[in-house]
Structures are given as C-alpha cells and as structure tokens.
Amino acid sequence: MRVTNSYKVRTYLKSLNQNMEYLSKLQEQQSSGQKLLRPSDDPFGVSRTLNISDSITRNKQYGENIDEAINWINTSDEALDKVSEYLKRIYSQINAAANGTNSETEMFAYKAEIQECIEGIGDMLNANYNGSYIFAGYKTTEKPIAVEKNSTGVTGKLLNTGDQNLLCKEISPGVTVSINTTAYDILLTANDLDEADPSYDPTTDTAESLSKTFEKLMEAMTDPAKKENLSSDSPEFSFLDKITAARDNIARLRAQIGAKQNRMDAASAKNAVENENMTEVLAKTADIDIAEMSMLVSVALATHEYALMVGSQILQQSLLSFLK
Asked: Domains along the chain?
C-alpha cells in the first residue's frame, strides 16, 4: 500500500481534531463542574441525575412542610399553656369569691379579674401563625372566637365561628399528619352536651361547653341572687369541678400536641438525612472529581502540544520552503 503525503496529512488532522474535541470537552467539564453536559454524554446517567434531582426537590418541600408543622404545633402548645394558666387563675378567683363573707368591693375585684382571664382565653384562641388563625379549622383567615360583652362587661360567652376540620401536611410520600387543634376541641363543644342537645339535663349533666360554664359563672358573679351558686355542689354549677375538667382537657390536648412534636422532630431528622444521602449520590453521578479532572486536562494538553509538534514534522513542505 502506497502511503502518500496527503494520506498522512488527513490522518494526522483527523487525530488532531479528535484530540481537540476531547480537550475541549474536558475543559468544559472542568469549568462547569459537571460530568454530564448533554444527554449524549451518558443517557443513563442523565436520566438518573434528573430522577435524583426531582427526588431532592420533593424532599426539600417535605422538609418545608415539616418545619411549618413544627412551628404551627409549637404555637398551639404555647397558646394552650396560656389558656391553662388563665383557667388556673379563674379557679383561684372562684375559690376566693365563694367565701360568703366577701364584701361588694371584693366581689367586684374577683369579677373583674375573671373577666380579664376570659378575654385572655379568647385572645389565646385567636392565636395567629404566619397570618393564619391556628384554632379556626379551615377558616384560617378569620378569628374563630369573639368574647361577648354587654353593659356590665364580659358575659362569659365565647362565640366560636371556626369549624372542626383538621389541617394536614404531607411530610413524606403518602404520609400526612394533622397539625391543628380546633377551638371546638378546646371549648369541649365538639363532643360534650350543651343546651342545644335534646338530651341535655342541667340537673344531672356536668359536661358542657366552657363558654356555657363561663356564662353561668358571670351570672353568679353579677347577680346577688345567684351568688350562692358559686359554692353550689349542684352538677349544674360546681364551677371548680368544671374548671378543673377544662384544665384536664387542655392537658390532654397538650399531650397529643407533644406526641406530634416528637414525631415531627423525628421526621425532620429523617428528612435531613435523606437530603444529605441523595445529594451525595447526585454529586457522585453528575459532579466531577476536581483532582482527577485537573490531571486529565493536564495530560490532554500535553498530548495536544505533542501532536502539534509531531505534525510540524510530517506536514509536506511547500515548494518555497524546499527552494530555501
């Protein structure tokens, strides 16, 4: 086979072009920090990278849901803690007011203190997190509780306009958790009997809404004819027992919230580990090894420079160069 000079030149230029393409690709990878610059580089690797990236994006959203759930639950717990403190204060004022030797001035002071506590409870049940009323069910844009007042001040009635719906957050694929407690749960209007229930008997039933208990309490504090109800053991009144039952209900709700807090903390830790693991896999799949890439670029540059040197020796000299 006759090897002509033109054949050598074509072969050389083809090899030189391949070296330049390889070097260009390495330099592009080095500057971008990415192994996979286009699907043709590694179709399987690109597909895997996209899947992992989507998983990381979804997992980050789950992380945001978990963080919001934690903040919502913590806000609920703090509000219920304050409600319990108000109920404790009301209990002590009822206990003191039930003493038959109290003067009119002292009774007025006890009443004023209880009214302030009831208003404080209304404020706590209107607790707000990030623009949402946390005890309103789905009606998060509206205050759920209004404290009724008349010419003598707070009547004790708490008007609840919220609903009983539970708000849920998805914290991992297919796993949702309810994050809210409703004012109905706190005021015991969801499950307990009140005067709207045909089976309610005020002489035997002690289960009633906290709002109704407050109404009867304020009547007893305001009307001298009903003052004796403060110390009554009748199931219709027995205010100390009812306030104690209300505090027990708050403690039960806070226990449920505490369990959710623990679950959210565990979910948050799991989510962080998953993000870390997936990010590491993504880096191994898509990112370059800087040290390795620097070595490859150096070798490719040396190869290219050597090819240029060899080419200067095999390329055909021009007639002018020969005559020199």
From this structure: 54-278 (1.20.1330.10)
